[in-house]
Write a structure and sequence with these properties.
Jelly Rolls; globular; 24% helix; DUF1214; DUF1214 domain-containing protein; 17 strands; 7 helices; 5-stranded antiparallel β-sheet
Length: 403
């Protein structure tokens, strides 16, 4: 059957052609002034786009029907977006305020778990591209979760009030967002699935109208992410573009409080012969540091030491943590790899009690690190670094069942 013989042929062809034109325009944005001209930076920007092209229609079509919800792994080792943290896992499911849903799971041992109902996206400037920008309406933290002796639990979203393991919804509710945060490599993730409780028939096949809407949504998504990053955090997120290599004050208020964490980001720039030392006091709670590219996409945390948490960090004898951001391995335990990037972003998150740390930084010559660090700062041999890589590799794979 040739084009034009189907009643929807013209509408579908036009929609797809428009999407491809928008994708082409999004690709041009890898050449932004904010993205350095070296090949590794240009490739990383295009990879950022292709990784998210790979989930555009999962979000726009395959999981979009709120009557048949599905948890979607939003970020992972091969998909980076939105300042993702290397030691978090992220899942979301589209929901509506008129249905009742049940999340069924096994708790696992991740130190941090937060389930948040997200409300409508506001209009106007300062709202991040889809599927971000939602207003957190209610959240359930891991310490409030009632879990059976076997580790199993149910959480209900919407419907009648329940004494425990329940999150209310509103007419504006549009998704549930689930974050898990890990410290040691041997922690087991919670295994979760979602269902609508009164489902009574198979999911219908997508209609032409739904496909047209999905194509439009996916176009908004790929153009939005390339348009908003990396500028959005500099304009609206408190990241200081004029003063690189310095952390702003940590903010633990507003929406971040409902998400159960505080966060701050430092934009860094390093010459080839430089290193950056991040120094702070040991403190209570669960903290995380993740190194990211220019587009606020986490670096290769499956294979490289680009993230740290308390259990994986050595502390100097004066009670301070010192992390060393450098382009090659300096032989210190707390090395943060730059992947050869000349610029990037380093994000600090704090959760679970205590207070965020004050983060001091200084840029030094790479060759002068031994003089800049205490004599007892922990070092590693090449063989120990390889062992660290394997521990990381196996620990990350434990968090993602598909790896």
């Amino acid at each position: 059957m040739a084009f034009g013989e189907g009643p929807d042929d013209d509408a579908l062809r036009q929609a797809w052609s428009h999407f491809c034109a928008r994708l082409d325009a999004a690709g041009e944005l890898i050449f932004k002034d904010n993205n350095p001209v070296s090949g590794v930076h240009r490739v990383d920007a295009l990879r950022f786009l292709t990784q998210n092209l790979g989930q555009a229609f999962d979000l726009a079509l395959e999981t979009h029907d709120t009557r048949y919800p599905a948890l979607h792994a939003f970020c992972g080792p091969s998909r980076k977006l939105g300042g993702d943290c290397a030691d978090f896992t992220y899942q979301q499911a589209w929901i509506d305020g008129s249905s009742t849903y049940r999340i069924v799971g096994e708790r696992g041992s991740a130190r941090f778990l937060n389930i948040t109902v997200q409300g409508a996206r506001p209009n106007g400037p300062g709202v991040l591209h889809e599927p971000f920008g939602d207003v957190p309406e209610a959240n359930l933290a891991g310490d409030r979760l009632v879990v059976g002796a076997d580790g199993a639990f149910d959480v209900f979203l919407g419907g009648p009030d329940r004494e425990a393991n329940w999150l209310p919804t509103t007419a504006g509710s549009r998704k549930v967002f689930i974050r898990q945060g890990f410290d040691s490599w041997d922690e087991q993730p919670a295994r979760l699935r979602i269902e609508r409780v009164d489902m009574a028939s198979p999911r219908p096949l997508p209609s032409t109208g739904q496909m047209l809407e999905a194509i439009s949504w996916a176009g908004d998504f790929v153009t939005g992410l390339m348009h908003d990053w990396p500028e959005f955090p500099f304009i609206y997120g408190g990241v200081d573009a004029e003063h690189p290599n310095r952390f702003p004050v940590v903010d633990a208020s507003g929406a971040d409080a409902k998400r159960g964490r505080a966060a701050t980001n430092m934009h860094w720039q390093l010459a080839g012969d430089e290193a950056l030392i991040v120094e702070f006091d040991v403190h209570d709670g669960l903290w995380m540091l993740t190194n990211m590219g220019v587009f606020f996409n986490s670096m290769d945390y499956l294979y490289r030491p680009v993230s740290y948490t308390p259990s994986r960090t050595e502390v100097d004898s004066d009670g301070k943590v010192r992390l060393i951001l450098a382009h090659d391995d300096p032989g210190y335990h707390n090395w943060i790899d730059t992947q050869g990037f000349e610029r990037g972003n380093l994000t600090y998150r704090h959760m679970l009690g205590g207070f965020p740390a004050t983060l001091d930084t200084r840029v030094v010559k790479r060759a002068a690190l031994a003089a800049e660090l205490p004599g007892d700062s922990a070092t590693v041999t090449p063989q120990q670094r390889i062992a660290q890589m394997w521990a990381r590799f196996n620990g990350i794979r434990r968090r993602y069942a598909s790896l």
